[in-house]
Every structure is written in structure tokens, then in C-alpha cells.
Amino acid sequence: MSTRRIFFSRLALDARIGILEHERRAMQPLHVDAEIDLSIPGPVDDHDIHSVLDYRHLREAIVQECTQAHVNLIETLCEQVAARLLADFADIQAVRLRISKPMAFSDCAAVGVEVHICR
């Protein structure tokens, strides 16, 4: 079976995440990196977006899942986003998802969590 990978590099958004009191009061920036492996059901028709998985829909699902409600732990959010992608898009075979908080510590560029989930 042939596969194709769609990736997002450092998708930036603001989310309500964190268990600490100051995190509960304000949104904070997140960066999302994702690698999404798809089965390729047929040839690509260069004139028909429906012959591929439109990555705009993947981005929309990631953003919506990250911003719809407060989540205490980044581990929970990572698993929720991966589960949503697998539930919503049947062609996805595997998701590698990294969500990081670039403002968590002043002495590093970011801290985060990565999951890799296969069907």
C-alpha cells in the first residue's frame, strides 16, 4: 500500500491550557507540529481537490480541537487532537503530533509532548 504524508510545521495558535492558576486565567500560545500518514486510494487528479485529502480540513480540525475548551494537561490535548484526526478522516493511517508551549520557560524555546498513534 502506498502512503502520502501531510505535515504541519509550527502551526501557531492561542489556547486555554494549563493546570496552574495563571494558566487558567489567560490564553497562551501553542505550536503544533503534525505528520499525518494517509493511504493513497487512487491517482491524484491535478484538477480535482477531491482526489486528495484537503489539508485545509486537517488544519481546521486541529485548530478547533485546540481552541474549543480549556484543557488542563498538554498530554490530554495531544491525545484529543490525534483521536479527532483519526475519527474524522478515514484515510489517515498514522498521526505523529507534537504540541509545545513556547512561553512555558524562559530558558528554553519550548516544552511539549509528542504522540504517535497508528490505526
Automatic annotation (TrEMBL):
Keywords, in A-Z order: Folate biosynthesis, Lyase
Pfam families: FolB
UniProt keyword Lyase present: yes
Pathway of action: Cofactor biosynthesis; tetrahydrofolate biosynthesis; 2-amino-4-hydroxy-6-hydroxymethyl-7,8-dihydropteridine diphosphate from 7,8-dihydroneopterin triphosphate: step 3/4
Record GO terms (molecular function): dihydroneopterin aldolase activity
GO CC, any one term: cytoplasm
The enzyme's E.C. designation: 4.1.2.25
Enzyme category, top tier: lyase
GO BP term, example: tetrahydrofolate biosynthetic process
Residues spanning the membrane: none
Catalytic activity: 7,8-dihydroneopterin = 6-hydroxymethyl-7,8-dihydropterin + glycolaldehyde
Domain Dihydroneopterin aldolase/epimerase: 6-117
Record InterPro entries: Dihydroneopterin_aldolase, FolB_dom, GTP-CH-I_C/QueF
SUPFAM superfamilies to which the protein is assigned, alphabetical: Tetrahydrobiopterin biosynthesis enzymes-like
UniProt function note: Catalyzes the conversion of 7,8-dihydroneopterin to 6-hydroxymethyl-7,8-dihydropterin.
Family statement drawn from the similarity comment of this UniProt entry: Belongs to the DHNA family.
Name of the protein in question: 7,8-dihydroneopterin aldolase
Species name: Orrella dioscoreae
